[in-house]
Design brief:
Radius of gyration: 18 Å
Distance between the termini: 42 Å
Strand content: under 5%
Order of helices and strands: HHHHHHHHH
Structural class: mainly alpha
Oligomer: single chain
CATH class of the domain at 60-189: Mainly Alpha
Number of helices: 9
Shape: elongated
Length: 195
């Protein structure tokens, strides 16, 4: 059994605390002091593990993305058909525990920094590449190759748009609403009987 180092445990706690602060405060209101208080630590401890606020929130974004990725992968591992793979990707992106207004607020805060922060931009690029690859692996079974990219763009834009909508309008949009929108889009883009 592999032992986890105390420093790794502490870093994980600080990343999670940073993400929780982002959910409440947004990027502008998030400070190292607030993260330290959330984690029950001192600002000095935070700075011992992370050089600055940008590095801490970069790691918080990685942590949040890893949790979402794991949820999608668990669903993909249970999928037996290309359509089930497509459903796994979509449903994983709208899991109840993630598709919450506070998490959408944190996601919006991080995304707003992408144009100014090369590390966050790089992470976002990796996230989008993984999503594209996963979607293409399912869509190629239903559509001509030249149409797949267009549908991938439509799916990813709709996912991002629904997250944006929930982040800006906390009430009124549910997971079921989001899934209904996704399935409606797919019903118009995939051949009949694809499911």
């Amino acid at each position: 059994m592999r032992l986890t180092k105390i420093s790794d445990i502490r870093k994980r706690e600080l990343r999670r605390a940073a993400f929780e602060v982002l959910q409440r405060e947004g990027m502008a209101g998030a400070t190292l002091e607030k993260v330290a208080a959330q984690a029950g630590a001192s600002k000095g401890i935070v700075l011992h593990y992370f050089a600055n606020k940008q590095q801490l929130f970069e790691h918080a974004m990685r942590e949040a993305n890893a949790v979402l990725k794991d949820a999608v992968v668990r669903r993909l591992n249970r999928a037996n058909t290309p359509f089930e793979r497509l459903e796994a990707i979509i449903e994983g992106n709208f899991e109840d525990r993630f598709f919450q207004p506070s998490i959408c607020h944190a996601w919006l805060s991080l995304c707003a920094e992408v144009p100014r922060d090369p590390q966050l931009a790089r992470i976002q690029k990796v996230i989008h590449a993984r999503m594209r690859s996963n979607l293409l692996s399912a869509l190629i079974h239903f559509l001509p190759e030249e149409e797949c990219e267009t549908v991938v763009l439509g799916i990813t834009a709709l996912i991002d748009g629904l997250w944006l909508r929930l982040g800006l309008q906390s009430e009124g949009l549910t997971r079921e609403d989001a899934l209904r929108q996704m399935r409606d889009y797919l019903s118009h883009r995939l051949p009949s009987g694809a499911a």
